Amino acid sequence: MSPENNLPDVADAQAIVVGIDGSDASLNALDFAVSEAKATGRSIRLVGAYTIPSVAAATIDVSYVPIDDSAVRAAVTESLKSAAEKVKSAGVSVEAVIEIGDAAGVLVDESAQASLAVVGSRGRGGFAGRLLGTVSSALPAHSHCPTIVVPVGWSKDQERAPKQTSSFPLADSAGTHFQFDEESETIEGPNFEGRVVVGVDAMGKESPALWKAAELAEERGTPLTVMGVITTSIVGPEWLPSTEELKKFVERGTEKLEAACKSVREKHPNLEVGWMLLDGQPSEALVRASDTADILVVGTRGRGGFAGLLLGSTSQSVLPYSHCPTMVVSVKRD
């Protein structure tokens, strides 16, 4: 055990942790993790976890029957061996860990000695397949490192195109003059193909999600788009702000996005950075961005408010519907 933090010693404290349960979702997550490991020069730590059901005695006359977990452990071991061979064949260093316990808790503990945690969006379920069932929502909220959730149907080679969206672009770093049919309720969403997209809230350049996204984009050699969303309609048309109020909201959002991009460029001068401000519901705008983005990055919470750029529960609203790998970065509460 490590005396500093009472955690088990690991081969690489900056490894990419991957939850494995043998499901297609976990193997899909592994494919993504391998590509990230090769891009960043990191190793992979495979984690398998399972629980043993307890036998509760109804009366003092019922004897305790010990449960043989050998079959379950053997199944988990086989899944890890198969996954390890796949990682080795890609030329990436790998280690594997099997733990008895709730999968989410095990992965949270493992994330304390990792640079990134990667899981699939859905697990196999059942007695031996607890790993990914609820982990994709529980792990991002409590992980000690950024977490990437990979959709079950994702493939890096799949063809993707923008879909219709109710979030309308207001301004961007290219100075685009956006014009729309006033009677149209939806438009074709922006195309973020080949880019990392990060959603920022009122924290702007202070957002941890922004800086993790910048690091990720630079490691991948991928342009970064910083997205902000304002919501000008809360209940219905009667809540629409005046033209002057809307202008102020757009100016504030633009200023924050400009400042965020400027800060990123100063720290990452070789990174291509741009921004886009939209009017709509934050979760819908981000899900539509995931239709074409290489990776989407969000924080665990927002600051909310009418003029906020993203709302507090956005990350949990986006994860179940995102169509690309989505990184969730912890934002500590004040």
Automatic annotation (TrEMBL):
InterPro entries: Rossmann-like_a/b/a_fold (IPR014729), Universal_stress_UspA (IPR006015), UspA (IPR006016). Signal peptide: none annotated. Residues 15-151, 195-329 form the UspA domain. It holds the Pfam family Usp. It comes from the Bacteria. Belongs to the universal stress protein A family. PANTHER family: STRESS RESPONSE PROTEIN NHAX, UNIVERSAL STRESS PROTEIN UP12. This is Universal stress protein. It comes from Brevibacterium ravenspurgense.
